[in-house]
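Ticket opened by: R.M.
Priority: normal
Category: complex prediction / small molecule

The reporter submitted a protein together with pyridoxal-5'-phosphate and asked that the result be attached to this ticket for the collaborator who will pick it up next week. Submitted input follows.
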Amino acid sequence: MNCAERLVAIFGSQAEVARRFRLDRAVVNNWVKSGYVPARWAMEVEHSTGGQITAVEVLNGANARKPIRLKSRPDGESFFGSTFSGSDMMNEFAPAKRINSFHPPQRTLMGPGPTEIHPRVLTTMSQPAIGYLDPIFVEMMEELKSLLRYAYQTKNALTFPISGPGSVGMEYCFVNLVKPGDKVIVCRNGVFGGRMIENVERCGGVPIVVEDKWGEPVDPQKLDDALMQNRDARLVAFVHAETSTGVLSDAKTLVEIAHKYDALAIVDAVTSLGGSPVLVDAWKIDAIYSASQKCLSCTPGLSPVSFSDRVVEYVKARKDKIHSWFMDMNLLLGYWGATNRTYHHTAPTNSLFALHEALLLIREEGLDNCWARHQRHHTALKAGLEAMGLKFLVKEQHQIPQMNAVICPEGVNEAAVRKTLLTEFGLEIGAGLGPLAGKIWRFGLMGYSCRPDNVMLCLSALGSVLDDMGYAVHVGDAEAAAHSAYASMHAKAAQAKKRREAAKAAA
Ligand SMILES: Cc1ncc(COP(=O)(O)O)c(C=O)c1O
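Result attached by the on-call engineer:
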């Protein structure tokens, strides 16, 4: 059956297809007669059939029946005189199959990142390119830095987005701060602590590892003990929100302990920034990095970093050459510093426009409202998941609202559930990593993906899939639990507002 016939089968009649797509019946009749759905309807078809017919199938079907002709003049008539064109010499290296423009399907992204990108951010990204030293761009860079300082709650002058994903931000911190032979205390309670150890080793440092169980926060006492036993350690590194397990560690306390022993603290805020409080100045964090594609609702590929003045002096005072040219703080300052910008690398300008817009959205929403939104939708999602009988990996007091790790029930095929959610509901959730592979699901509620419609879709889709697989769940109970959580949060917020207004009137 071709896509046109499948559409009719799904919706019952050509008339119904026409109604759904707001088309004349004759148009749909023509699709059926010609045996394909035109490529421009690909996304709409995937969306309206809930993924039963994917956009790619529509595109392939349309292309098979009506291939796109790209040639504007016959073979051999190249305007600039080459006699080799079309089917000869260079075609030896051409792709084996016909390639069409890429049209990603519309997905609901509720995994560990990337998250859905806010429409305003998407629009901003598609603005015309300008040069990375254009005065208008340079002005935008200063605004971007100030918006980042707001997101990080810091006055650190050195706060900017490094070009590259979160892993580049991580390497930037280690490569600038770790000298060969330096002892670094690294706290590991999941995947990303492990990557920090790798970074220390690759910088020639000596990692002293403080281990905690996956799913538990970093134990401050263990860090204190490690520093006590390693008085010469000058650095401490830990992950604030461990994405692999959904656990939040107490960054303020861990930094305090590092400072008690005169060590500097490197903090991974890839998953926490924008979703949970990250107070760089109040917690006296020395070096921190994050990523654009999680709670900032932006495209992947940028890593906001911030160094305190003390760290900047520490790096400037290094006598040895920093082992990465690209990530050398001193060289990057030539481009991102406040004055006299010079070429360092070609900055990803359109992605930087996008980050500017994404941070502006947070500024407009208000950072505290943004944290509260993550908490609110987490509370509703959790109520629904628990009503299905599912259990969280992490104890309630250490859970991160934006990353919900849930144990896959005995006898349920973890991977099959994720696959069905993706193919039938266009919903992406995350799998477990390392020792948790096959044992947990990770439901992200980050940035623009953190919305009530996503919470409700997730609960009903997951409930239906589990039910189909023979795991006894009552989808209605899960939805009712989430609705009731929302209702009680609304009622509490309304009461609090009333009290505030009454107090204001009385004052
Ligand atoms: C806590 C944490 N640190 C670092 C990274 C690496 O970031 P990226 O994938 O953007 O390189 C991730 C990615 O998920 C993360 O969750």
